[in-house]
Specification:
heterodimer; A: 152 residues; alpha/beta; 17% strand; globular; B: six-stranded antiparallel beta sheet; five-stranded antiparallel beta sheet; disordered N terminus
Chain lengths: 152, 728
């Protein structure tokens, strides 16, 4: 594990407030994470493919993806990612306020690696982020794709 | 549909009558019945009359014989009187020729005392010696050998006989006695007697005018006779009489009078004098009486018969007319006409007619009743929105109302008589008829046809189908069964149901999405508030308080959306019904409420709970909500909650009793409505909890309500179907 390099995550979330809360929570948790965000599935794909405005972005270590989004929702986005050989192994974790079993099922079927329910309580959310970080960046070895090679 | 007893009677000569020839008419039979006894009676009376005649005849015979005998006696007495007078005269003194002058004088006196001719003659065998009609010493006629004097002297016996008087030539009766001188018969003394003397004897008898009476002397010559005495005096009696006299002293015989009149004659002859008397009754008279009687009898009988016959005929006609009127009435009754009371001559016929009229009124009443019912029934059938199909026990259609015609596309006349099956789609026909037959056999109690829960389909005349629901019922009537099938086209309802279902689903989806979308900003608010509350430098007390209030409001809204989401999802739930132990359910609910129970110090007393068939998680939520409510709305005391269940015949009644504030009667219904809350202030609540409870209970086929608990507090009760009861 590369201690020097901070983790990088992509938050796919249509609610700007939630993105902001995420940043606040990460800050509160004192985690070393770089956070990019995309407002929906289409933006997520554009971001990962380097098609978004502002040029190619660094590949995230994992993606936190909301389920219900306008334009392109969670399951559709995950399916699109899994259909792309470059992102077949990308860690995608669903993060939603919905605990609806239907949503859970849809996301896993689309190819999610995990499904998390956002706690409403801020402190518990901070806790959850800590655990998430500890697991994915402390325990798990993830496939980072082809490192350092800019995407075409 | 003419009931047997209303069938018109067979006209005369038809039906059974034709087999045995025409039946006798009532009048003829009546006449016969009347005449037969009349004839017998007449015969009897005739027999009695004939018998009476015979007896009368016998009585006449006896009577006339008696009369004849009496007359004979009277004649005898008369003759005897004369003869004893003569004998006395003779005994007056010895008759010697020298005494003849004195004798003449004496005899003349005697002669005057005699009836009739009044002469006394004394004669010997040669000549008359004294004759009181001739002065003594006058010329006297001689007496011949056949003269009475010769006969008396010859015989020495008294003599009486009708004789033609030699002097006058008239027929007289001569009575004579022998006169003995010194013991020897020397003379005969005789006297002429007027035959009228005997004639008077007969007259005194006052015999009926037609009768004959006759007196004969010993020579059977006529002395006196009631008729034609002058002509027949001295004549011999009729041959038949003489023959009878030859046969005996007295008797009765049938003969002929000298005039040629057939008579029945009784006679008696004196043994002393040989004189006889006969009384003859003309047979004409005897028979005439009988004939008369018979004629009267005949006339009476005939007139009785005629009268009776006429009466019988007339009455027979009356009766026959009455009967034919009654027959007409009966026929009218049979045709169902209204009868008016006819005027009939006999009490019985009148009663019968009245009974018929009454029957017609009753019948008319009944018919009106039936007509009214039919009109009502027809109105029901015609105006019914549902198709009504009536079939007989053989499942043949007998009634098809307008709604059914519209539904199935058949005209009524097309389907009457066709099997019920034509209304069933081909694929459902096998077993259909047998199923209906089984339904009839099982009693045919009304039941819905779609009891299996499947949507049934019916077949239209054009081969298309429509979804239907309906009921079927069978009743037993006099001549079999009547099946009533009520059919309703549920195409529209199914469409509405479908639309409703869809809109419900959409609504639920909407609710789910909405509450999710509501939660999202809430989360932000809460998160930012948390961050804000920890901001540096430290906030003022006032700022902290406001932030805390914002946080509470956000929490409340969070609950609200959570409950709404739960409420919306409830309808979509497909959780299976399993056997659920409510005891376990209650412990689970108490477990979920651990914190509020601990915080409030509530004591929860759970009585033995039954096992029911239900959705387990819904039951947990139900108890959770109710117990939570009891804790939330507690009074000043720490909550004491009792959970119990009572068995009723087909349901369990579960009660959750608390010692809380209680609920005012006005609110007892409203608390179960969505967003209804008792208090605006006070314990936090979403107003959804009890609505969820009601929805859960309703989904399990029960109902929920709240009562006041005695001693304050409330009891929430709800029912759940019992194990084994038909609510599965």
């Amino acid at each position: 594990m590369d201690e020097a390099r901070p983790g990088r995550i992509l938050v796919v979330e249509d609610e700007r407030d939630h993105v902001e809360l995420m940043r606040l929570a990460v800050a509160t948790a004192g985690l070393s994470l770089e956070i990019d965000d995309a407002r929906d599935g289409a933006a997520c794909l554009a971001h990962l493919r380097g098609e978004s405005t502002g040029g190619p972005k660094p590949r995230p270590d994992l993606v936190l993806m909301d389920v219900n989004m306008p334009r392109m929702n969670g399951p559709e986005t995950v399916e699109a990612l899994r259909a792309d050989p470059r992102f077949r192994t990308l860690v995608v974790i669903a993060l939603s306020t919905s605990a609806d079993p239907l949503d859970v099922r849809r996301m896993y079927q689309a190819g999610c690696n995990a499904y998390l329910v956002k706690p409403l309580d801020f402190d518990r959310f901070v806790d959850m982020l800590r655990q998430l970080h500890a697991f994915w960046f402390g325990c798990v070895v993830i496939d980072r794709g082809e490192p350092r090679r800019p995407l075409p | 549909m003419t009931p047997r007893h209303l069938a018109p009677p067979n006209p005369p000569g038809a039906g059974s009558g034709a087999k045995h020839g025409p039946l006798p008419s009532l009048r003829a039979r009546l006449l016969l019945w009347l005449l037969l006894p009349s004839f017998v009676g007449a015969a009897l009376v005739a027999a009695i009359l004939v018998n009476e005649y015979r007896q009368g005849l016998e009585r006449s015979r006896q009577g006339s014989l008696f009369t004849a005998r009496a007359l004979a006696q009277a004649v005898d007495n008369q003759l005897g009187e004369i003869q004893s007078g003569l004998s006395g005269l003779a005994a007056g003194g010895a008759l010697h020729p020298e005494d003849f002058a004195a004798f003449h004088a004496r005899a003349s006196v005697f002669a005057k005392s005699l009836h009739g001719m009044g002469n006394v003659v004394l004669a010997d065998t040669g000549s008359q010696l004294v004759n009181t009609q001739v002065p003594f010493g006058g010329e006297l006629p001689r007496t011949g050998p056949g003269s009475p004097a010769s006969i008396v002297i010859g015989s020495g016996r008294p003599f009486a006989r009708v004789v033609k008087a030699s002097l006058t030539g008239r027929w007289i009766v001569v009575a004579g006695v022998p006169v003995r001188v010194d013991g020897t018969v020397r003379y005969a003394m005789s006297s002429g007697v007027n035959p009228d003397l005997f004639q008077q004897l007969l007259v005194r008898q006052q015999l009926p005018a037609a009768w004959f009476a006759v007196v004969l002397d010993d020579q059977q010559l006529i002395v006196a006779r009631t008729a034609e005495a002058a002509t027949f005096r001295g004549q011999p009696a009729s041959a038949s009489f003489r023959e009878a006299l030859a046969r005996g002293r007295e008797g009765v015989f049938e003969g002929v009078t000298l005039e040629g009149v057939p008579v029945v004659t009784a006679f008696s002859r004196s043994s002393d004098t040989g004189w006889a008397v006969a009384v003859a009754i003309p047979r004409e008279e005897l028979a005439g009486e009988l004939r008369h009687s018979l004629a009267i009898l005949g006339a009476v009988v005939l007139s009785i018969l005629a009268l009776a016959g006429a009466l019988a005929w007339a009455n027979g006609r009356h009766v026959a007319r009455s009967l034919s009127k009654l027959l007409a009435l009966s026929t009218q009754l049979g045709r169902g006409e209204r009868l008016t009371n006819p005027d009939l001559p006999y009490a019985e016929t009148q009663q019968l007619a009245q009974a018929l009229v009454h029957a017609s009124e009753t019948q008319a009443e009944a018919r009106r009743d039936i007509e009214d019912r039919q009109i009502r029934l027809r109105a029901v059938l015609d105006s019914a929105v549902d198709g009504i199909v009536v079939a007989d026990g053989n499942q043949r259609i007998v009634e098809f109302n307008p709604a059914a015609q519209r539904l199935f596309g058949y005209e009524r006349d097309e389907v009457i008589g066709l099997p019920l099956e034509i209304l069933v789609p081909e694929r459902n026909r096998p077993g259909h008829s047998a199923g209906v037959a089984r339904f009839i056999a099982e009693g045919g109690a009304p039941r819905p046809m779609d009891s299996t829960g499947k949507v049934l389909h019916a077949l239209r005349s054009d081969g298309t189908e429509f979804p239907m629901e309906g009921s079927i019922a069978a009743v037993t009537v006099r001549d079999g069964q009547v099946l009533t099938v009520i059919v309703r086209d549920i195409t529209a309802r199914l469409a509405v149901q479908d639309a409703l279902l869809r809109s419900n689903e959409e609504l639920q989806h909407y609710a789910a999405v909405a509450s999710h979308d509501l939660r999202s900003p809430l989360r932000s608010i809460k998160g930012f508030l948390t961050v804000l509350s920890r901001s540096e430098p430290a906030l003022t007390e006032r700022q902290r308080e406001l932030i805390a209030r914002c946080q509470r409001a956000a929490d409340h809204m969070d609950h609200l959306t959570g409950d709404l989401l739960a409420y919306a999802r409830l309808q979509r739930s497909t959780e299976p019904r399993v056997d659920v132990d409510l005891g376990t359910v209650v412990s689970d609910a108490i477990d979920l409420l651990r914190d509020p129970i601990r915080d409030s110090g509530a004591r929860i007393d759970v009585k033995p709970m039954p096992v029911v068939r239900a959705a387990a998680s819904e039951m947990v939520r139900l108890f959770e909500n109710l117990i939570s409510n009891a804790i939330k709305y507690r009074g000043s005391l720490s909550p004491v909650i009792e959970v119990s269940a009572q068995a009723q015949p087909d349901a369990w009644v579960v009660s959750i009793r608390d010692n809380g504030a209680g609920i005012a009667p006005d609110y007892r219904e409203r608390v179960f409505e969505l967003f209804e809350r008792l208090q605006n202030e006070g314990p936090p609540g979403t107003g959804v909890g009890l609505a969820i409870c009601r929805r859960i209970v309703q989904r399990h086929g029960g109902r929920i309500w709240v009562e006041s608990a005695p001693g304050g507090g409330s009891v929430f009760r709800f029912t759940l179907a019992r194990e084994g009861a038909n609510h599965g």
